[in-house]
Specification:
It is a single chain. By secondary structure, this protein is mostly beta strands. Strands 2, 4, 5, 6, 9, 10 and 11 form a 7-stranded mixed sheet that branches. Strands 1-3-8-7 form a 4-stranded antiparallel sheet, with no helix packed on it.
Length: about 120
């Protein structure tokens, strides 16, 4: 069993910052790509950022220059630093990871954490 648990969401003012964390636990042998998606009400889920196992990041154009993805492989944790937040960043943010266990390789998702940007 593999679990991803997110934390760090909440309410922020426009222009403010938040930091999301997501830690994977369970019978993990290795983790490949990790990332963050988000889904706003009435909108399609979109990929926000992805980071490879060796730390190479990619960010969606909509967040480039404002959000930063990083990871700590020793802690099986991926982070998303959200700066210069805008109301349109309001969404549920989901982390994901490609995880190898002793028996399988697959994609796992967290339960989601709400980010609300409002004055």
């Amino acid at each position: 069993q593999v679990q991803l648990v997110e934390s760090g969401g909440g309410l922020a003012q426009p222009g403010g910052s938040l930091r999301l964390s997501c830690t994977a636990s369970g019978s993990i042998m290795s983790i490949g790509d990790m990332g963050w998606d988000r889904q706003a009400p009435g909108k399609k889920r979109e990929t926000v950022a992805i980071i490879t196992s060796n730390g190479s990041p990619n960010h969606a154009d909509s967040v480039k220059g404002r959000f930063t993805i990083s990871r700590d492989n020793a802690k099986n944790t991926v982070y998303l630093q959200l700066n210069s937040l805008k109301p349109e960043d309001t969404a549920v943010y989901y982390c994901n990871a490609n995880v190898r266990t002793a028996w399988t390789i697959g994609d796992y998702w967290g339960q989601g954490t709400q980010v609300t940007v409002s004055s």
